[in-house]
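Q: Two folds, back to back.
A: First:
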Amino acid sequence: MTPVLPPAADPRLAGAPASPRPGADPAAMARTARAFEAMALGALLQPMFEGLGKGGAFGGGPGEEMWRPMLVNEFARAIAEGRGLGIGDAVMRQMIAMQEQRA
């Protein structure tokens, strides 16, 4: 049985996680660009839901305030995973250009 080490003693958790070299994996760059697009879309969609008030389709109550931002973020992620708005494509092109400048 492998002993369980506390986080401070576990060498795998020491220091900052090693980040892969950008550009080394095009799939990772595409995921990063999509994640950025989802974050930007979430910021754009959030104000649309602020004026809806409580109740209606969401049922109201104190839990609604907690769950609504998660719903908006999920909408944004779904849009970005679909066709998106092109923000991810623009970010990907910029990431590739930055990699070419470094090379």
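A: Second:
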Amino acid sequence: MNSPQKKHIVYVENGIGYGGAAICMRHLVRNLDHTQFDSMVVTGRTGASYEEIAHETQWKYIPDHRFDTIKMKESLEKNQWINKIPGLSFISNQLIARLDDLGNFLPFTIQLLWTCKQFKADLIHANNEAVCNRASILVGKILHIPVISHVRGDLDGTSQMTRWIYQKPTHFIPVSHWVSKNIAQFDIPQSKRTVIYDGLELDNLDVQADGHIFRNKLNLHEKNFVVGLVGLIIPWKGQDIFLDAAKILHKKIPQLKMLLVGGTPDVCTNFEKHLKQRIEQEELGDFIIFTGHQSDMNVVYNGLDVVVSASTSPEPLGTVVIESMALGRPLVAPNHGGAAEMADHNETALLFEPGNAESLAGAIFSFYSNKDLREKLGKAARTIALKTFAVESHVQNVQKVYKQYL
């Protein structure tokens, strides 16, 4: 039974896979003031990591992709003969879009509406950007309750539909000042935007975690210089650039191992196949390793000599950046988006030119060549992170936003 004096918050997570957004949401939900708030988490996907949420709060899985319209569109693009018939490609895309509306969006919205009514929700917290969470916005309008939109990504303001949707949430929580400026393009006033950095349960980040556990799992030795790109296997995370840099570094660094650390969302299995084909065709298999999803990131970070974020599109903030800084690890990150906002070049990280494999390789080689630099920047990064990303501050600031509308 819901406590009548508490406010009831429904969190909706519609990301394409279990990554930084879902992890940060769990940090928030676990650390809410439970004397004031009851919570329920709704996810559009399921699996072991999502199911763990049920041990922390009320959790419900409502599938948001009964029909894989993304793969349908990919298959359509590969069929070149369709483009030879005037108008057929347009009609086919419209049919897929309507299938997405009727087969995915509508059932999810109806179930979310019923769930929120049963839970007696006072507020909906959409954990992803507004277009992805348009069902949450619609349900909030129907129930006449506030909808808080947590914005975590780069946005294209050219679509009229996107601009229209961004007028609907009650308030926005951009995860960095860079993101806040980005959504200002939708004529959203400053009064409706509250920048709140993601928070981490710093007590659970074990600086002393034994990285050898991770290295031994992959048969890596002490002499191996291990560089890991941490993130979901999706195109904009920069895995292709990472492979390009690996080809440059392979001739310069003895015993080099380059790791792709992270799981692959269902919608990106073709991209994983592309990467594996590259590795085979370019004969990179002796030093490139796919690790898959890793549950204990403490041992992963401590098992890496260098942590890499290589996103080709600007990261809004980047859980990898936060976690690696908080653990005092040597970090290489692109000089744009949230990474550039969080890390200072040659003080807390090494920043490289986004999308430039030679620049990325140069930063990694600088760390390889200078162990003192790795230790110095890692130590400085941890000091900054402990002050900036404490989950207690994050939760307090989010609850202040709630209270404005409750």
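Q: And?
A: The radius of gyration is 22 Å.
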